Amino acid sequence: MTAPDLLDQLHATFGFTAFRGVQQQVIDRVMAGQSSLAVMPTGAGKSLTYQLPAVTMDGTCVVISPLIALMHDQLRSAEANGIRAASLTSADSDDYRETAIDRFRSGDLDLLYVAPERASQPHFRELLSKARVSLFAIDEAHCVSEWGHDFRPDYRLLRPLMDAFPAVPRLALTATADAHTRADILAQLGIPADGLIVAGFDRPNIRYRVTHREAITRQLAALMAEQPGPGIVYAPTRKRTEDLAEKLAAATGRTVLPYHAGLPAEVRAANQAAFVASEDMVMVATVAFGMGIDKPDVRFVAHAGVPKSIESYYQETGRAGRDGDASVALLLWAAEDFARARHRLGEVEEGRRAGESARIDAMAGLVETAGCRRALLLRHFGEDPPETCGNCDNCLEAPGIVDATTLAQKLLSAVYRTGQSYGFGHIEKVLTGAGDERVAQRGHDRLSVFGIVNAEESYLLRPLARALQARGSLVPTEHGGLALGGDAKSVLKGDAAVMIALAPKPERSRKGRRDRSGAVNPVGDPLFDALRTLRRDLALEAGVPPYVIFHDSTLREMAAARPASLSALGEIGGVGARKLDAYGEAFLKVIQQN
Ligand code: ADP
Ligand code: MG
Questions:
Q1: In angstroms, rounded to a whole number, what is the distance separating the alpha carbons of residues 276 and 288?
Q2: pLDDT at residue number 511
């Protein structure tokens, strides 16, 4: 197939007019019969790189996917685009499986989704030899590597199976793989090194925001007020998820449900299904939630506490905005998150301690930076991004940067001189000379550090103490006091500087705001609202989530262009031949009436 034919097929099947990023590069290799590993961030459009070849090539593309829920989501979306697809899983009925096998053998399928454990079954290999396989697509391919974050031993059985069909190209796909894991995936799946295609990590439509946790319910409710669409809040413990879900529901009147591994399986499944189908629900979850959720219209991901690494943070925030629309990633942090993480280092086995400690430092760097958050993230993944992105809190509202080295020396020496056992409140009283009975009793009003911080600097003490705890120069004692840690000695000796970033004052922040985050849904446009209502009705009728019918971006384009004929409607992004056929008349009618 030539390039223009592929573009025609792209438009006919998916209603898209152009490839995104490295999609074309990946598809070209597949069409040339070459094996590849594509590392593309979440939302980059990995599925299309095997689905489009699957509809154009003879035979069936066998897709290996680790989770049944994920498979069924994909199946549903593929079928909605008129792609002939089926799955073979333990969750399907015998009848369904029999039909799927018949269709596969008679060449009536573009896509066949299977779980990795099937690869080890001799009769599956036999089945493959009786059908015509065009491509092996291995989704979430990092599962094959012990270096990856989600090793699945069954993935190791894929190589021998695929080796039995040497003429069939392989396409491995993942969003998360460092250099080490990539090399391992190539080896484990028998893909040549020159088949590696890596797209950048940037998710430009996600706006990163990091802020100190003050009143969590109020902060999250404010985010929800600003983002009416679906969202995920990650909370550190099961109890916290339930607690927050209840408070947020009460504060906002919206549907907010909890999700964690301790809930009964049927409650979990029901909450997850409700979330996937919803246009405005918020899920408060532990990190157990998310893998296997391909919901494209998640408008925000919030962290109620500091994630364990930059990698986890990137992966979890990556669940926002797969559809490319503007989305927010909000991280609410507190010094105690870092204190707790550093405290836990003691329990980590010696060999892994340095690595864990570096992960905490990297998170502290993200929290404390006055520079571009995106640039910091991308540099972490080995990229060389521009200094500013224009779509993170620090780029939009530059924080004040203060050299607090001298003040830090005062603070640290007060901690030292009072015996490294008092909490911040006491230290603050000593430093500002506020004194009280306890200060006097301990004789701390006679220390050289008593009253050495004047009123003008005193407002900096609290953010400074937080910053010092985030970087580990101050560590908590068992009894809630503060002690010196990390580089405290270097700071005291004047060998290390302490710069702190201060959140901008609200009145300043509104000025000079640049917004590069992409489109958002119009508020109060009657046509757009009517199109959404129709989409909701059709989704209900078909038993699929609304986004399977059309994405928001497609409805927005319809509302703006007001197409008056089927052929004009077919030009809207996301309207392929099948959907035009199935829903075209209904949407045209709504456009006419509004
Ligand atoms: P990934 O698996 O990489 O996270 P998906 O395959 O789920 O991403 O695709 C994410 C979204 O991007 C989907 O909703 C898909 O319809 C959309 N998409 C993919 N390719 C294109 C394209 N070329 N043009 C427009 N939208 C696209
Ligand atoms: Mg995917």
A1: 16
A2: 38
